[in-house]
């Protein structure tokens, strides 16, 4: 998506061929790292079998992280047009699910919940808790359904084992301690609990000034998995590519965004619309020439056979 966005922004809209956009989305050049392979393995949302967890789980995780980060650093949205709006992350999530989410029924349920109570959210804390509450409602509704993973059953989260202080009992009825829930969510989805282990380019922290550090590096914390109910195995990290290979991959990606002076370049192949037209003309001409040669030799061989038969007669 980043490659597609960069390429679209680099060209005037009126000069982008429709087929070129399709070719880039489908990645017909098969550039490594630009497209998703047939086998997709999730880090924190891997289901017990294909079709379970995966993308919906990762989407919940993403927006949980965004709500917590927005509460921690609200100035991050300055000059975006969203800084003066209440619950900007929830509004963006609402529009995304309404437009792009593949499950139409799920989108309708979320739209109903948003229309009923999203306008009541006025602060960052309420934004974090509103999304957490809606996520638990969805888990309750889908518990035991076909989309429920038997190894990771949908239930109210966080569980008592994960956050004992989040659960209370009043008059024999279970209630949530929302202050402790908020504190737990801030830690679980906070920046300090996110691991860059599986990111393509982990951010480099600046070195502390002074003499060489003698403290050993701390172990990485596991990645925060959205909607996780249990700890699960993490796949092996992707091996780092050697420097020449990285440069080659970078060069290939840059070629995707290439553009020449004579017109719009088609996916970095060096062909513009005029070149493509010439290729088509040459291709058709070659086909016609080969057909003429075929018929010429066909007729000639037939005449030779007739002449040869007359000599024998």
Automatic annotation (TrEMBL):
EC number: 1.8.3.2
Transmembrane found in the keyword field: yes
Entry's transmembrane regions: 280-297
Keywords per UniProt: Disulfide bond, FAD, Flavoprotein, Membrane, Oxidoreductase, Signal, Transmembrane, Transmembrane helix
GO molecular function: flavin-dependent sulfhydryl oxidase activity; protein disulfide isomerase activity
Residue ranges, annotated region (Disordered): 195-255
Annotated signal peptide: none
Pfam families to which the protein is assigned, alphabetical: Evr1_Alr, FAD_SOX
Top-level taxonomic group: Eukaryota
InterPro entries cross-referenced by the UniProt entry: ERV/ALR_sulphydryl_oxid_sf, ERV/ALR_sulphydryl_oxidase, QSOX_FAD-bd_dom, Sulfhydryl_oxidase
Gene3D superfamilies xrefs: ERV/ALR sulfhydryl oxidase domain
Keyword Thylakoid (UniProt): no
Catalytically driven reaction(s): 2 R'C(R)SH + O2 = R'C(R)S-S(R)CR' + H2O2
Name this polypeptide is given: Sulfhydryl oxidase
Gene Ontology biological process terms in this record: protein folding
Cofactor list: FAD
Alphabetical list of PANTHER family matching this protein: QUIESCIN Q6-RELATED SULFHYDRYL OXIDASE (PTHR22897), SULFHYDRYL OXIDASE 2 (PTHR22897:SF7)
Basic and acidic residues compositional bias, start-end: 217-239, 246-255
GO cellular component entries: extracellular space; Golgi membrane
Domain ERV/ALR sulfhydryl oxidase intervals: 48-157
């Amino acid at each position: 998506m980043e490659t597609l966005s960069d390429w679209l922004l680099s060209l005037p809209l009126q000069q982008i061929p429709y087929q070129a956009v399709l070719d880039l989305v489908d990645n017909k050049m098969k550039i490594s790292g630009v497209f998703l392979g047939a086998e997709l393995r999730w880090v924190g949302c891997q289901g017990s079998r294909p079709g379970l967890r995966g993308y919906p789980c990762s989407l919940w995780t993403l927006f949980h992280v965004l709500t917590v980060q927005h509460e921690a650093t609200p100035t991050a949205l300055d000059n975006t047009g969203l800084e003066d709006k209440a619950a900007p992350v929830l509004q963006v999530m609402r529009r995304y699910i309404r437009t792009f989410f593949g499950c139409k029924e799920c989108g309708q349920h979320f739209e109903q919940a948003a229309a009923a109570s999203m306008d009541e959210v006025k602060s960052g804390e309420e934004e974090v808790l509103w999304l957490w509450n809606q996520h638990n409602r969805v888990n309750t509704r889908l518990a035991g359904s076909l989309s429920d993973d038997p190894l990771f059953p949908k239930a109210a989260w966080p569980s008592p084992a994960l956050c004992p202080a989040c659960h209370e009992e009043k008059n024999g009825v279970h209630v949530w301690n929302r202050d402790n829930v908020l504190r737990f969510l801030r830690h679980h989805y906070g920046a300090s609990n996110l691991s860059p282990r599986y990111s393509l380019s982990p951010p480099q922290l600046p070195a502390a000034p002074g003499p060489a550090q003698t403290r050993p590096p701390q172990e990485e914390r596991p990645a925060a998995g959205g909607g996780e109910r249990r700890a699960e195995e993490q796949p092996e990290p992707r091996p780092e590519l050697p420097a020449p290979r990285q440069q080659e991959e970078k060069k290939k990606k840059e070629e995707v965004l290439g553009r020449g002076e004579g017109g719009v370049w088609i996916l970095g192949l060096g062909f513009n619309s005029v070149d493509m037209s010439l290729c088509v003309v040459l291709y058709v001409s070659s086909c016609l020439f080969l057909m003429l040669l075929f018929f010429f030799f066909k007729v000639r061989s037939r005449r030779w056979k007739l002449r040869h038969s007359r000599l024998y007669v």
